[in-house]
TrEMBL record:
Residues 19-162 form the Amidohydrolase-related domain. PANTHER family: DIHYDROOROTASE. This is dihydroorotase. InterPro entries: Amidohydro-rel, DHOdimr, Dihydroorotase_CS, Metal_Hydrolase. Pathway: Pyrimidine metabolism; UMP biosynthesis via de novo pathway; (S)-dihydroorotate from bicarbonate: step 3/3. It comes from the Bacteria. SUPFAM superfamilies: Metallo-dependent hydrolases. Keywords: Hydrolase, Metal-binding, Pyrimidine biosynthesis, Zinc. Catalyzes the reversible cyclization of carbamoyl aspartate to dihydroorotate.
Length: 178
């Protein structure tokens, strides 16, 4: 999310339509984080993907392109990744989980004009947990994953639960389409 867009489009819109609920899907920059902090409104929220918390553009590009890390919005520099990690680690209640999981067949990703998107559904929760643990912020994990979103949308909180077990997990190289 570009700072100019926030300042010239979203801020005037927020001032005119004070009750309008807005979710910035998959913020990726320190400017996106800044807009969440400096805006006093309670009607703006943001989602953050696991890939934008775990990786930056160096992970995707250094030593050769890794097409399975190519997603839109594209991975940014490490200063932006760190800003997002600090946001979720702070327990900021206006940010929540947004996987943006996008499965594509291998031949559509590994081509000269590959599809954008990371298929993270099988590993998303564990990926988020890893980041929260690395940031010493597991106390904020449940709210980010399960409470902040429903609260904003006025939805009931899911009464089911998931037990995460700390264990080494290898993400499969391939997942069958079907």
């Amino acid at each position: 999310m570009k700072r100019r867009f926030i300042d010239t489009v979203m801020e005037p819109l927020r001032q005119r339509l004070t009750a309008l609920k807005v979710v910035f899907e998959h913020i990726t920059t320190k400017d996106g984080r800044r807009s969440m902090y400096v805006t006093a409104t309670t009607t703006w929220r943001a989602t953050i993907t696991p890939q934008h918390l775990m990786f930056n553009r160096n992970d995707m590009l250094v030593g050769g392109i890794r097409p399975h890390l190519y997603c839109l919005p594209i991975l940014k520099r490490n200063i932006h990744q760190q800003a997002l990690r600090e946001l979720v680690a702070s327990g900021f209640t206006r940010a929540f989980l947004g996987t943006d999981s996008a499965p594509h067949s291998r031949h559509r990703k590994e081509t000269s004009c590959g599809c954008a998107g990371c298929f993270n559904a099988p590993s998303a929760l564990g990926s988020y947990a890893t980041v929260f643990e690395e940031m010493n912020a597991l106390a904020h994990f449940e709210a980010f994953c399960s409470l902040n979103g429903p609260q904003f949308y006025g939805l009931p909180v899911n009464t089911g639960w998931v037990e995460l077990v700390r264990d080494e997990q290898q993400v499969p190289e391939n997942i069958a389409l079907g």
